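Protocol step 4 of 5: obtain the predicted structure for the target chain.
Materials: sequence only (see below). No template structures provided, no constraints applied. The aim of this step is simply to have a reference model before the mutagenesis design in step 5. Sequence pasted as it appears in the construct record:
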Amino acid sequence: GTSELDAKVAQATDLVEKAEAAEKAAEKALEDANADGVITPEEKAAIEKANENVAETKKAADDAVKALPDTVAEKEGLQTRVDDVNPVKVPEVTDANGNGKDDAQELADATKLVEDAEKASQEYNDALTEAQKDNAISQEEADKLASLKDTADQAKDAADKAVDTLPEGIEGKDGLETRVDAITNPDVPAVNDKDGNGIDDETDKLIVEIEDLVVKAEEAYSVMEDKYDEALENADVNTGKYKAADKKAFDTALSNAQGEKATAQEKVDEALASLPENVAKDFQKRLDALEDKELVDPSTEEDDEVSPYPDSIITGRTLNGKLTGKNAENVLKKIKDKNPLMDDKAEITLQKITTGDANDTVIVGTNRHYSSATDLKTFPRFYSLRDSEIETGKGDDVVVIAGDMNQASSVSNRTEAERRPGSKVITGEGNDIVKVSSSVRNGSVIDTGDGDDQVAVGQNFTGGSKLLLGEGDNTLFVGGKLRFGIDITAGSGNDKVTINRGIDIPTAKTEANKVLIDLGDGNNELFIGAKSRALVNALEVLTGSGEDVITLNGNLNNVVIQTGDGNDTVDLQTSYLYGSYAGQKLIETGAGDDVIKLGRTANLANGNKLSVDAGEGDDTVEFYFNYDATANQNQGLIKGGEGTDTLVLKQGGVTVNLATQGSGASEEGIQGFERIDMTSADAQTVKLTVADVLRNNDGEALFISGNSADTVDLGADGESSLGGFVKNAADTISGDSAPVAGHTYTAYSDSNGVKVYIDDAITNII
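Step 4 output (structure tokens):
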């Protein structure tokens, strides 16, 4: 009856409550699983199990409720409650490895780490490839590569770890593992370029070895050329025959020179594959420039064959103004008879040949010399202009002396030349050519007048001789040396002067024996020592306004170089400035943005020290060797002058000390520079103190540029003292205000406000 039905209702109600409780348990399992934002496999399984309990309890409750008679008042309510019981939605697993991280985000993070590792590896490998292009690794390159490799290795380790922790089976993991495994960061190669010059140390040794051989060859050829010159100078003035001792000395020197060249050439050929291309080309160029001389027995036969050339005079013999009597009459007649086609206005005496205003050719030589008259690399001999003159009028004239310009008297300097003038060649206006196959000697004079003239002298200018180049773009080539009291003067125009061998005055400079070269206004070029390094002593060089280039390759003694306004270059980088003879070495470049390239300076006494004044303008002084006024080497006084001036250290390992010491004649040091540049080579050092900065440019800020291999010694003491300077990290200069674009400079100052801005790329500041 009633009690049995009540029991069934109570049982059904209990089952409904259990189903509702199961539903709440499932909801709680879902809520707990979602608490950390990710779903683990265990959490998903717990939810699924809770849902199974919901389903089981709901079915039991549903069966019990449906079994109640419809007359039971509670049935409808219980059925509604059962119908409202439902399982929760089971979420997908988002944290398959149960590490509390969303798998998708973990995959994205791992992918990013792999990309970062690939990028870091690429940067390292690119830098490695670039560094290995020259097969030389400097310490700076090795340090940079080590830093990049460390970054790349750390990035790969991080990526590898991230990929390893990804859940197994997650889409994309296998691909990431393959990408990580493909990342390769080779070891940093060992340092093999200790001086940081871009050439490995073994090749450097080879270059030094070859350099020694090439220098020996050059020196041997220089000796050979000296013996050649001596043989020519000592040859009989009438027959041209060489002294037996001179011929033997030349033959010996030539044989030795050829042997030294062959030895050097063999080594260059052997090492060609190991040498940098530019170095190999330079060695080969230097060896190719070494040319054999030949002491050809001179032809002194007289040539009386009629000249077929119009507007020309060919003497057929030496023109000797000292001939007298019947001999002189016969020679003069032969010369006149030989030249029927000469200019109607021409006049011939043994003392002087004069032409009119046509384009005339005058040859002291033979008919066969006519075809090579304008070839300024061909120097025939032996027919001389002796105690005589040649004067041509207007026109584009050609004058060839197939031997010397000379006179009977011996002249050793300009003072004696004023008293005893020698032979003369005077060409008027026009674009003239004057060629002297041997030497211009003993007070002889060449005056080319206005026009674009070319003068070539096969050997030397000696003994108070003069060259006067008028206005125009003139060219002078001297195959040998300038010796004793030479004057070379050019008017306005772009002149080019090349002296192959040097200024050979082995005595102290005097007004009488000095060599004076005045190039005038224009963009002029002067190269002394173009063939080989030689003595350059008792030289004065003057230029006017224009952009001049003065290059000296030699052992410099008493030398004065003064350029006018314009952006001039004085290149002494291959020269040695030393103190064998008295007299100051003076370089003054005047107004303009000038460049001065200094060679090796040392041991200069107060009376013959180096003095450099760059003058007004933004000038640059380049150092190729160490400079230190405190080393008691009397290296001279270097002044930048007005403007923003820069000291540039050009060679690796160079050290420059900004100290100034002494006063008056004994003062030496560096003054007046606003910038120092060490960016062109590695492992350079600048030393300075507060006092040096104050003396250098009246205490104005000094800027120093460089790289990580360079050193700035602020105390000039080799200690990590900073010399009283303190770094001010808040005071920096970059951008357009920086001396070198892309670089940032940080201030170092002392208590009195003296400032030095140092390139942040320089890390070794002591």
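Step 4 remarks: The chain has five domains: 2-84, 103-182, 201-288, 471-670, 674-766. The first helix runs from residue 2 to 34.
Proceed to step 5.
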